[in-house]
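Example 3.2
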Amino acid sequence: MIEARGEKPETWIVRVGCDTCKKWRAVDLDALLADRGGNFSLVNRRYRCRLKPDCSGWNQFYYYSGVMRPLWDDATTDRWMKHDSQVRTT
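Structure, written as tokens:
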């Protein structure tokens, strides 16, 4: 992540959004690097919502470089959808 951060202009940002409460915020990449180390990546990751107390949604990451784009691939989308469907039916 350090190399990717160093190659991107300052206008390149990462945001996190919740699929349930619809809250958004910017991700402090420098703080994330300091906390997790240079090999950490947000690509194909999601976490339970930390943007709103008591929200059970998923936080997903997007990068902005002119438009917001997801930080996950199609295979990960399929995996997440299968997981979420199984959770809803149990």
